[in-house]
Amino acid sequence: MIYTVTFNPAIDYVVHFPQLRPGEINRNESEEFQFGGKGINVSNVLRTLGFDTVALGFVAGFIGEGFEKGLTQMGLKNDLIHVREGMTRINVKVKAAEETEINGIGPVITEADMESLYEKLDKIGPEDLLVLSGSIPKCLPGDTYERIMARLDGRGIPIAVDATRDLLVNVLKYHPFLIKPNNHELGEIFGRVLKTDEEIADCARKLQEMGGRNILVSMAGDGALLLDENGQVHRIGCPKGKVLNSVGAGDSMVAGFLAGWLGKGDYDYALKLGTATGSATAFSIGLAEKPLIDKLLETL
Questions:
Q1: Left if phi > 0, otherwise alpha if psi is -120 to 50, otherwise beta: which for 268?
Q2: How confident is the model at residue 161 (pLDDT cuts 50, 70, 90)?
């Protein structure tokens, strides 16, 4: 089974305007609700690709109850933890000439709540896979990912981590199966502006030397680069299409890569499916759907 962890999920209220006029009453021309959070997105796309997952995380209040019910109605298996203080977020995503986001705070997660999560994670075994993605809420220690991976260390569980800066670097000593920085985040880690494939591959090797097994570097419209655990560099371009949505594309790439690897055990194919899946989300209003993923995969 694949388990995903989302510490601060949200209901995303997505509104579309031909033009947003600050200081005036704006009436949107269309709207939709999406159940968001990076781990939730990974679970959603993996389900689209035919893989069962269990979404773990924290919810609170009546919005949290609606969130859990919504996931269940979508067919997403979940084992969410209800916390007492605060409320699950509603994030407003404004789609106009420019994208604008207004993100909520989320509930307060206590040590007792974390212990409930640890108990669920303790049941995961080497035949499973765990995905940790996104930022850590301010109510939790900054080393929360480290604590999780230290607790699971030595049990042979493949763990994918999609995080930034110190949150990512500090877990490398636990040898995560997959990490996915983008090229800008990779450069920030080493205080460099990366302009060439050689420079990106060089920094990816440094992360591998620090403990990461497979380093997947997304590069937006320039495609992606993968340094696999065997030391081989894979490079791929990006399919052609009109970018309609930037939310969830990275999560979709992670989901596609894992689906490709689990399905065929081939890193070249995993990179292709990850790129096709991430691009399919970027070219869609919501998360990637199977027909578009398949169509883009044929072009790679």
A1: alpha
A2: very high
Residue 78 falls within a domain, yes or no? yes
Taking each helix axis as running N to C, give the angle between helix 267-282 and helix 249-264, from 0 to 180 degrees, rounded to the nearest 10: 150
Residue 27 makes CB contacts below 8 A (sequence gap 6+) with none
Domain assignment present for residue 86? The answer is yes
Calculate mean pLDDT across residues 42-64.
96
Q: How many CB atoms lie within 10 A of CB 30?
A: 10
| 128 in any annotated domain | no
Query: What is the pLDDT, as a whole number, of residue 101?
Result: 87
Quote the CA–CA distance of 56 and 132 in Å, as a whole number: 10
Mean pLDDT of the 171-176 span: 96
Residue 289 maps to a domain:
no
Check residue 85 and give its pLDDT.
93
- Active site residue ranges: 251
User: What's the CATH number where 80 sits?
Assistant: 3.40.1190.20
What's the rounded Cα separation, in Å, for the pair 111 and 21? 44
Q: Which domain holds residue 55?
A: 1-107
Overall number of domains in the chain = 1
